[in-house]
Amino acid sequence: MEIGWPSKVRHIAHVTFDRFNGFIGLPVEFEPQVPRRPPSASTRVFGVSTESMQLSFDSRGNCVPTILLMMQRRLYSQGGLQSEGIFRINPENGQEEYLREQLNNGLIPDNIDVHCLAGLIKAWFRELPIGILDCLSVEQVMQAQSENECSHLVSLLPPTEAALLDWAINLMADVAELEELNKMSARNIAMVFAPNMTQMSDPLTALMYAVQVMNFLKTLIVRILREREDSVVQI
Length: 235
What we know:
By secondary structure, this protein is mainly alpha-helical.
């Protein structure tokens, strides 16, 4: 039996899905069968896979969660990059929990503490179900000593993890560029990010591995900073 082209087709309704409001434009007769709100997992932005999150492109063409870009823009606009100890100083727990709740609703309150924003950016990476570097073996990261070896490791990452790492490295480079103000060198910012990039159950192994990850991140940050300087000189 051959299947022919559809006939008597009518456009009844245009339905879109919004991660915060569920299905929009759904005909009334279907509403009882479909939840008005999306599943709870899709409304969370921490501790969930990027596959269930709303994504956007950054200035470098990386497809990353929109919530990261929102936090980054607010961090920059409030002078977070100039703040001493940014990404190192821990925020007050009370404000962090409040901001988490607001972020799950797609909001960032005005005048939020920049250290709270920075802390939650790190927390977002730390709470991923799988760390963005976990697809690389410990041996691969430990053996990568030179810039070329570190760059080769980046090329082995899947597209999602590669985009997230590139976004994070450029964020860290933005911080390191203002070291004179924020006291956060390439090594310092790599040190505070390193424990958030992998998931290891054994604390001692995680601590030892974090040192290798720190060196890996630092090498990539230094490369970005040099490339930025070279591009300015060429102009």
